[in-house]
Design goal:
Layout (H helix, E strand, L loop, with lengths): L9 H11 L18 H16 L3 E4 L5 E5 L8 E6 L13 H17 L7 E5 L13 H6 L5 H5 L9 H8 L12 E9 L4 H5 L3 E7 L1 E10 L16 H19 L4 E10 L9 E10 L2 H22 L2 E10 L6 H13 L4 E6 L4 H5 L5 E6 L15 H19 L2
Parallel strand pairs: 3-4, 3-5, 5-12, 6-11
Antiparallel strand pairs: 1-2, 2-4, 6-12, 7-9, 7-10, 8-9
Helix pairs in contact: 1-3, 3-12, 8-9, 10-12
């Protein structure tokens, strides 16, 4: 058949996405709450595995719970082409973030099966564990271990708010696989994702060619003060950890505004102890991240946060320390794969736009050990990590077809 005429089955893809949308219902009919390694995650993994087996794929699960569904190649000893993303969601998430990427990969394989196309190289669909970091911090945990950025023992020991560990929850839901994590050669990795920004939607362009990344630096900061009675304790004698945390939160926000419009600084989480009426807290913990496309500016923003910590600690008469750090976004995607996506979009007459990724993705860590590229598709008004996240089939199809043809070309290399 004419390879250029090959096209995914849009109705089947959308039916698959809508089936996913029933697993882990959120607060509204359009929302999802499918946190990593919960019962809802297990149900979705089981459904996905069934779909993959129906498509003739073999399933392997590694010790981090990362799922790989393999379609054999004509020369099956060659390194595989990976496609995928993640199936877990934020606590108030939408139907498409990550999910579209995994299920578009499944549709690519189903389309090749329908057309009787056998590729030279094997193709594997991957569902990465705990991309969101909504239950276990930090995000992109499964791909981080796979790429050698974090150790397996460290990841297994990560704890959620209820004191449950990643390792124990993998065992509980039946996805503590036996395969080694990473350590093998991969020919290429493609990840399709909704943009999570407004550029494609604003411009009416269906395909985003991800040409770069934002540098991201994250910090967990602990504030230590002293408990005291909220009534008789003089203001000048107080060492209120919550006050120190509040001062820092405002300072971080100002750092973001100073680096705007490209720069962003966020405090997304605060924990306080004892967090009770009538007593001054003696401990708090805040999660901070700063982002900018220029790495030098990112490092300057980190220095600004550290300076603000010293100033806020002095004003609140508390102690502040960075107890954990993480970073991503300094990676660069493979120029050959980026060019392949751009050429494929042109050949399919799908308008495209080169643009950077401002959010974190598993592709960042994978790019450290394998040639990697990303395709963005539009999402309405750029809304994401929100139950109102939305996209339309007709807006997604051009990007999914670009994924199909780019993967096909690479897998026949």
């Amino acid at each position: 058949m004419n390879a250029t005429a090959l096209s995914v089955n849009g109705a089947r893809l959308w039916d698959t996405i809508m089936a996913s949308a029933h697993i882990g219902p959120g607060r509204t009919p359009n929302g999802l709450r499918r946190l990593a390694l919960t019962d809802a995650d297990r149900e979705m993994r089981d459904l996905f595995a069934g779909w993959c087996r129906d498509a003739g794929l073999s399933i392997t699960v590694d010790r981090m719970g990362n799922m790989f569904a393999r379609r054999a190649g004509a020369d099956d000893a060659l390194p595989a082409v990976l496609i995928g993303s993640h199936l877990d969601t934020q606590i108030a998430g939408g139907r498409y973030d990550g999910i579209l990427g995994v299920l578009a990969a499944l549709e690519v394989v189903r389309t090749l099966n329908d057309a009787g196309v056998r590729t030279r190289r094997p193709i594997e669909i991957v569902n990465w564990t705990n991309e969101e970091g909504a239950r276990f911090s930090p995000p992109m945990l499964g791909s981080a271990v796979w790429a050698g950025v974090r150790t397996l023992d460290w990841a297994h020991a990560r704890v959620d708010d209820a004191g449950r560990t990643v390792g124990a929850e993998l065992e509980r839901i039946g996805y503590a696989g036996t395969a080694p994590v990473g350590g093998r050669t991969v020919d290429a990795y493609f990840e399709l994702h909704i943009e999570q920004g407004p550029l494609l939607d604003d411009k009416g362009i269906p395909v985003g060619v991800v040409s770069g990344t934002y540098g991201v630096r994250g910090m967990a900061i602990e504030i230590r003060g002293e408990t005291a009675h909220s009534g008789p304790t003089p203001m000048a004698a107080r060492r209120n950890a919550l006050v120190g945390a509040a001062m820092l939160i405002v300072a971080v926000n100002e750092i973001g505004f100073a680096a705007a419009p490209e720069g962003k600084a966020t405090t997304s989480r605060i924990e306080v102890w004892p967090n009770l009426t009538g007593i001054l807290p003696d401990w708090a913990r805040v999660m901070v991240d700063v982002r900018h496309p220029d790495v030098t500016t990112v490092e300057r923003m980190v220095a600004d946060v550290r300076r603000a910590m010293r100033e806020c600690a002095q004003r609140a008469q508390v102690e502040m320390d960075v107890v954990e750090t993480w970073q991503f976004g300094s990676e660069r995607f493979d120029p050959e794969l980026v060019s392949l996506i751009r050429r494929t979009a042109e050949r399919l007459r799908a308008p495209s736009l080169d643009l950077p990724s401002q959010a974190g993705h598993d592709a960042y860590y994978v790019s450290r050990v394998a040639p990697t590229a990303m395709i963005f598709t539009p999402c309405e008004r750029g809304i994401s990590h929100n139950e109102n996240e939305h996209t339309r089939l007709e807006d997604s199809l051009p990007g999914v077809n670009v994924l199909l043809h780019a993967v096909l070309e690479r897998a026949n290399r």
